[in-house]
Amino acid sequence: MSDYEERSIWDHFEELSSRLRRIVIALLVTMIIVMSLPSDLSKIAEFDFSNYTFFVSKVIEVIQESLLPEEATLIAFNWLDSFNIYVIVSFFLSFIICLPYTATQIYAFLSPALYEKERKSLLKFVLVFVFLFSLGVLYAYLVLVPATFTVLYKFVNQTRVMPFYSVKDFFDLVILELIGSGLFYTFPLILYTLVIIDLIIIDDLRSLRKHIFIGLAIITAFLTPDPTPISMILMTVPFYIIYELTIIILSHITKKKPDPIINAGLQSSLKLLEKESKVNSE
User: pTM of this prediction?
Assistant: First the structure.
């Protein structure tokens, strides 16, 4: 850590820019590969390029089949809509593939400035963050997004209009709900961190339950396009359960953790006693 501290701020910026360049280059190379891959990898080994179907196109097809109601039809209102969606899906697939490399580069940049215990804490934080985010995305994909489209489609039936939707709006909505749900599920980890570093206390989390729930309901109302409360409930209730579990876990952890105020008082008392003993000895 001492070597890290002796380096100038420009050295740190240079190292950071170098690692960011590596991440961007890795992402671009992966994205080019992902965009070029066929859905059937055996065609590459056989040099068979007849009926070449891109892997990303297959992913887009799977997303439509699993999330879009059967009677609904997607149409492109713009020449570039389909291409833009192809690029966006390729980017997200590449981003997921590059996550381990990205995390490695970020960890390598931060680790010299951290003590051994802090490095372990950082690693745990990253792993739990990835797990909670993935859990939120999986929940949105399996439950939240299908429920949202089902409810919205019922409104189409009630108004007796043809179920044609913009392909861009469809994928924008899917991405918004997947990312929004993933980030929502990581919020308890933020609370955990704030409690561990003594910025907030457990009693505050308990007393602010109602306010947090109301604020959460307002945020989900904006994030979910469903005019009924169904999507909002599907997003809010699991989050609130995780919030309560976080309070229980933190209550258990903080019982074993010494009170920082008491520790500070004890240290001050010890210092005073040491000073008095020195004065008396003189």
Answer: 0.72
